[in-house]
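Hi there, hope your week has been kind to you so far. Please have a think about how the structure follows from the sequence. I've dropped the whole record in just underneath, so have a look:

_____
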Amino acid sequence: MQESESQEQRKPIAAFVLSLIAGLWMLAGRGMMAGAGWNMFMRGPWPWRHPMMRGAGDVLPSLWLWPWLGVIAGIIVLLGAAMIYSKPAKAQGWGMAILISSAISLIAGMGGFLAGVLGIIGGALAIAWRP
């Protein structure tokens, strides 16, 4: 293999894998919280009805967009991961989108702490990656 061919085939695999895992985790976590079983579970015995045991979307019902932040962030992170893999030349821009979406998900608490941290690390790796 020549040097030019090997450089064209290099891709930010670590950034892709971490971002993919983070995006899937964000969507899965939000999907479980939004499922029908979650609402029935939260109306169970007293300790589970306490506001501290609910997600931020249940505590602040006036923010109707709040629960959807995790879904939107997860979709952006998954889209960014796919674009990082398919178009490595644009990895820095998509890494920034992943980083911002993961930070919003981490702050909002809708995608899970570990998913947010994985997304931030994946976005940072994509930004730092050079072909």
In short: Helices lie at 3-9, 13-34, 36-42, 46-49, 56-59, 68-86, 91-108, 113-128. DSSP finds eight helices and no strands in the chain.
